[in-house]
Amino acid sequence: MATTDSPPESGYQPSDRLKERLAAWQASVEWEPEDGAPEPAHRIPSVAEAREALEAGIQQELHDDRQLSLPTLAEHVPWTAENLRLLMAKRGGYPARERHRKSEGDPRVYQPSEHLRDLLAAYNLSLDTAQKRLEELEQCIADELTAHPDVMNPEMAKHLPWEQEQVRLIARKYDVPRRRKRGSEHKLIADDKGQPKSVVVPYDWYVGQPGADPSIVKR
Questions:
Q1: Cα–chain center distance at 190
Q2: 3-class secondary-structure state, position 2
């Protein structure tokens, strides 16, 4: 018999290293400057900042080149033509497209402006930075779980912007050893005559055991 009752907490507090890794990852996704604090030198823009700048650059590109179609532009940016249409609608739209006239000669081959190429490079750099810092954070979480075998996934999740399922996936990804259960986390249930009838075990422990009931694991 398994229950979803929460096991006793260990009193764990995240290390300074984990706090630093978490802050670095969050800043790479969406940077929020502290009041009065100077901006760090050579700071790489967050994903949110770089995306906003790229969207503005795309809108400017469409304003500057009235014959530039969304399908053509989509070949050079990380979004489909339909995504671009929705993005531009959100930003207030863009001028109507102009058709190429035969009298103008052969249509030119579109090349993104230098400004747009710079914005694309900055956006890709922000994505790479965020991914790198996410991997560093995940590794740190795995190290913490390994160093503190009494810490369960729900307890770790309280210190992170994720649910316990994400912590479990990180633990599995980095081969964190299975937890050794404290005796207090298991509960013996007796029948009316005081004889042992069943044992209640922590859910996180049960789902990691060989032969666990699939119907319980999927809950």
A1: 45
A2: strand
User: For 64-85, what is each residue's pLDDT tens digit?
Assistant: 999 999 999 999 999 999 999 9
- Give the CA distances from residue 204 to residues 3, 161, 185, in Å, rounded to whole numbers and listed in that order: 10, 19, 11
The CA distance from 23 to 31, in Å, is: 10
SS3 118: helix
pTM score of the predicted model: 0.74
Q: Which residues pair with 196 in a beta bridge?
A: 190
Cα 114 to chain centroid, rounded: 30
CA distances from 43 to 69, 93, 212 (A): 34, 31, 48
Q: Is 44 helix (H, G, I), strand (E, B) or coil?
A: coil
The number of helix segments (H) and strand segments (E) in the chain equals 9, 2
Run of H or E including 164:
helix 164-173
For 94, the token pair is 């863009």
Cα gap 195→144, rounded to integer Å = 40
Question: How confident is the model over 100-125, as pLDDT tens digits?
Answer: 777 777 777 899 999 999 999 999 99
Which residue type, as a one-letter code, is found at position 65? D
Q: Say if residues 62 and 94 touch (Cβ distance below 8 Å).
A: yes
Angle at 4 between CA 135 and CA 190, to 5 degrees: 140
